[in-house]
Amino acid sequence: MFLSIAVVLALAVSIGFNVWLFTRGKKPEAKKSIISIIQTKIKDANEMVTLRSYFQGIASDTETGKSLMGIHIPATGRKFLAVYSGEILCGCDLAKIEISERFDLNKIIVKIPHSTIMNITVNPNDIKVYHQDKGLFAQAYKLDDQNLVIASSIEEMRNKAVSEWNLLFRSDENAKRNLEAFVSSLGMDAEIIFMEEENQEQELKEPEELEAISINNNLEAVL
User: Fold this and answer.
1) Prediction pTM value
2) Is residue 74 classed exposed, middle or buried when 0-12, 13-18 and 19+ CB atoms within 10 A define those classes?
3) Which residue stretches of the chain are H helix?
4) Summary mean pLDDT of the chain
5) Among residues 51, 120, 56, which one has the least CA distance to residue 88?
6) How far is 166 from 205, CA to CA, in rounded Å?
7) Between helices 143-163 and 167-185, what is the axis angle to 10°?
8) CA atoms of 210 and 197, how far apart (whole Å)
9) Helix/strand/coil for 211
């Protein structure tokens, strides 16, 4: 009986040792597999929306009217004023990421581009025309004219999103947290590095440098 117990124990130790050797030999391959999964899943996402900003804009236009030989012609001016609401989406282009392994550490380095404004949408049902007036000899604002005024206002919102509201900086912070959490869920650590762009037009300011936003602007981080 003691002999059979000894044989069983020896067999168990042998199997355990062989399993340990097998799994030990598989670790680099497993790590490579995890990195491949991370790269595939991130790139498959194509784009990552990391911040939404809801805003209200004012679209206005004033034309003083026509003039002849430097003399203003009365009743040829017109005015237009509308209020609308919209949504700005910021995020990263994940198709451009670069992933590399940090040697001797359970860590990968992920290089991603800085956030950009991916889209600005306006709900046509939210556009409210508050004032529209014209002189006796002026042409009324047509739908195309109104759309041009609103489009110009939306472009101002885009510029404010970068220069005043600091949305791209906040979007970058969200992207970094999201990717770190994703890689961590697969059992590895991540070091997120933003790619430097040579002719980068957008300036990312630190939060303490932000100026107060004068219009209603609600921010929502997309996690």
Assistant:
1) 0.68
2) exposed
3) 2-45, 143-163, 167-185
4) 75
5) 120
6) 7
7) 70
8) 23
9) coil
